[in-house]
Amino acid sequence: MNSDFQIKLFKLMERVWLVGVLIGIAGVVYFLIQKDNDSALYFFGFFILSSVLYLLRKRQRKRHESYLENGKK
C-alpha cells in the first residue's frame, strides 16, 4: 500500500468520524427540543465517542505524515 493511498484513507476515516460528531450534535439538540432526555443522552454519548475517535484519527494521520516526511529526507 503506497503512502498517498494511506493518507487518503486516514483523511477519509477522519471525515467519517467528523460526520459522526455532527450527527451526534444534531441528535442531542433535536431530542432536547423534543424533551426526550434519554435519547439525548444516547446521542451525547455517541457525540463523545465520535469526538474521541476523530481526534485519534487526526493525530494518527499527522504522525504518519511526519514519519513519511522525515523518512524521505
Report what the structure shows:
- By secondary structure, this protein is an all-alpha fold.
- It is 92% helix and 0% strand.
- The chain is rod-shaped, with a radius of gyration of 17 Å.
- The mean pLDDT is 91.
Please outline what is shown here.
The chain has helices at 3-33, 37-72. With 73 residues, the protein is mainly α. 4% of the residues are buried.
What attributes characterize this protein structure?
73 residues, mainly alpha, rod-shaped
Question: What's the overall geometry?
Answer: rod-shaped
Distance between the termini: 20 Å
Please tally the β strands and state the result: 0
User: Helix and strand string, N-terminal first?
Assistant: HH
Question: What fraction of the residues are assigned to beta strands by DSSP?
Answer: under 5%
Structural class: mainly alpha
- What about the largest sheet? none
Into which percent range does the helicity of residues fall?
Answer: over 70%
> Count of DSSP helices?
2
- Poorly predicted spans: none
Radius of gyration: 17 Å
Average pLDDT, rounded to a whole number, is: 91
